[in-house]
Write a structure and sequence with these properties.
The structure holds 2 protein chains of 2 kinds.
Chain A lengths: L2 H18 L9 H4 L2 H4 L8 H23 L1 H22 L14 H7 L6 H18 L9 H5 L3 H6 E5 L3 E6 L3 H10 L12 E8 L2 E6 L2 H11 L4 H11 L5 H14 L3 E6 L8
Antiparallel strand pairs in A: 1-5, 2-3, 3-4
Chain B lengths: L5 E2 L5 E2 L2 E4 L5 H7 L5 E5 L8 H11 L3 E5 L13 H14 L3 E5 L20 H18 L2 E5 L14 H12 L2 E5 H11 L3 H7 L5 E7 L2 E2 L4 E2 L8 H14 L3 E5 L7 H20 L11 H6 L29
Parallel strand pairs in B: 3-4, 3-12, 4-5, 5-6, 6-7, 7-8, 8-9, 9-12
Antiparallel strand pairs in B: 1-2, 10-11
Helix pairs in contact in B: 4-5, 7-8, 8-9
Classes of the chains: A mainly alpha, B alpha/beta.
Amino acid sequence: MNDAEQTELSELQLWMARLLRTRRDLSRNESVAHQIPLHIMGNPRLSPEEQLEIYREQFWLRHTGSLVEDFPGLGGILGQQDWERLVEEYLESHLPTSYTLRNLGDQLPAFVERLSWLPHRELCTDMARLEWAYIELFDAADAQALSPEKISALSPEAWETAVFELNPAFWLLRVRYPVADLRRALVANRDTVAIPDEGPENLVLYRHERVLKYKTVSDGAFALLEEVHRGIPLGVALERAAERVPTEDFEESLGSWFEQWGRLGWVVDVKQSATVRQPD
Amino acid sequence: MLRDPIEGKLGVPNLGIGMGLRVPHYRTILEQRPAVDFFEIISENFMVAGGKPIYHLERVLETYRVIQHGVSLSIGGPEPLNRNYLTRLKQLVNRVKPAWLSDHFCWCGAGGAHLHDLLPLPYTRAAVSRVAERARAVQDFLEVRFALENTSSYLTYTSSGIPEWEFISEIAERADIGLMFDVNNVYVTCYNQDLDPHQFIRSVPHERIVQIHLAGHTNLGKYIIDTHRGHVIDPVWDLYRETIELAGPVSTIIEWDDDIPPFEVVFAEAERARKVSDAALEARARPSVGAGSAHEFFASGAAGAEPQPLEEVRAWIQGGPRETTAHE
């Protein structure tokens, strides 16, 4: 390939890609008006600017449409005007880099958290984190749940060194607002839903039989699930969770928790650790 | 239920007449298992680890032949091909085992940005070299027959020095790949660029056409957008007949991606394609391809539906909506 011709082709594409991401209508953008006819021909029906504008407009419609679909709860909280401003600022500051629109919102929770003008910012941050988690869980790998028999067959000594593997479609999320309930209400009927009061929740988000679900759990159960999720033996996980939540009666709850977690498909495997790791 | 594939071109079978696999039709397809020859999936919608997309794909594969069509390869882009993308694409190929696989003569982004559009390439020797070299590499890597599709375009570059049909023909020959020939895109591009669709159809290497796409579009008067919305219009059926007369039997897919109607409507469109194809094959012994200038074609009363008023400008997405949390 001729290097100079390849460079010229690449420069044309870089120029065009930059223009297609600009927010302003190209026919009103005087700063680029003189450049466009150098590269784009036009025809008797459409000027060069109008031809390019078809693609520029689609860039914005396509990407905002994708975010609307993936973040209905966030859009429902904000209302159209603030939502459009948020999405425009997000797309202007975050290049879409993935080959799939599925990943378009991967930076949106962190962006929302930093956006000082946003009304209900903490609530919006919680909602964005919830909705991104749902996207991740929706097509996460499939895994067969561990049978309750296999869990109950563990000997008392084996529990201490058992390392439980949790489902790939499993996500722990601590929120300051009841956003999972709010999202469900907004998706069902966004016009009549009130903004909720603050109310912290420990959410377990998961996929069961291909349907996304959520469940609130106690502080102790949440702490233990976080430790177990790190892949450490249950004995160590329990010690750490008890230090974090001393008010929880782990000994009393452990059996029923695991029975329930197995039934919900959260636990998919158990292995024995060779040695019992001590807390750090 | 499945018709036996017959020998096609470039070593790939002719699978008959199929449909694009779309989310609103899943229930009908999985519950009723209608007699569709084959389905085409949008590869990117299934390059995921699991969940509903993979579940539905596996259920479809139990009954039907499936081929893959991609929209994100960006084979003509300024950056090297995305190895991660190709690896995941090959994983899907290993799952689906398509008889062939396709993407587009286009680029999708630059400077690290992926714009999720099928941007036209300038028809230059530099673009021919770039795309041909990469197309051959993709075909070798995926170990399955690869084909590229002519896109609809809404602009013309000042640097384009050769006609589009020469551009795609030369790439196909040099890379030894197939042509995914979109007859509706021929119509759309020729309308938008004042070109002669008959000349386009006559000028491509017919022996390399491994698949045909048919779809509706949206005519805004000054230009046409390839929205894959609505029925295939009569002039496009005529161009399809002409293509089959020249190329012989070719696997054909109906695409319908916006305002997707019930399954039965798209199925009926596929059955119409079968009738047109059968009639064209009967007429092959006495071909009567169209002739005339672009001006004559588009000025004639038979050249298309009346322009449609633009009720609402909205995004068009090739392959229709992906299955997302919104479908929960």
